[in-house]
From TrEMBL:
Residues 19-52 are annotated as: Disordered. Gene3D superfamilies: 3.30.300.30. It comes from Mycolicibacterium hassiacum (strain DSM 44199 / CIP 105218 / JCM 12690 / 3849). This is Acetate--CoA ligase. InterPro entries: AMP-bd_C_sf.
Length: 52
């Protein structure tokens, strides 16, 4: 579980960015993100992968 999901100011979830982070890519932070600190909080969780 993650504390929050990264969203744009209009409320859309940044799925592509999260997918890239989960795949180990260094995704650029979109300028429309509501709270950039959310990505830093979930980056280590996404890097671990999903529990099996």
């Amino acid at each position: 579980m993650v504390p929050a999901l990264p969203k744009t100011r209009s409320g859309k979830i940044l799925r592509k960015t999260m997918r890239g982070l989960a795949d180990g890519r260094d995704e650029p932070v979109p300028s429309t993100i509501e709270d950039p600190s959310v990505l830093e909080k979930i980056k280590p969780i996404l890097a671990k992968g999903s529990p099996s």
